[in-house]
Amino acid sequence: MILEAFKLDGKRALVTGASAGLGQAIAVALAQAGADVACHGNSRQPSATCRRVEAHNRRAFAVTGDLAQRDTARLIFEQTLNEFGSLDILVNNAGTIRRAPRLITRKTIGRMLWKSICRVYFVSRNSPDAT
Predict the structure, then answer these.
(1) How far is it, in rounded angstroms, from Cα 123 to Cα 69?
(2) What is the value of pTM for the model shown?
(3) Residue 53 to residues 36, 67, 109, 114, Cα–Cα distance (Å)
């Protein structure tokens, strides 16, 4: 069966932005495929996601912090490696969304894009395999 090709037994993943939405769905899907998952959250704790991962008999670990800050990415990798011992999969999902009843200005869009770019850069740069 084709699903055999997607087994992740014994793999360890870190999913940023895993508190809700797409990040939570990715974390749960990784657990369903057999991976242990470190679930990152910023302003929201990823505890609900961790419980859903654990419901699939996989290990879950919550890490939090603002990934737009340079040191946060290093810290979540350190915490993840201390908990799991290694990291096989990185899903760089964290992002920014602004829900407002008024029009979004160019300045707001610029801030949202900058934060999203910083998050991807800082997380990828601090990955244990980054050079």
Answers:
(1) 10
(2) 0.81
(3) 8, 22, 33, 31
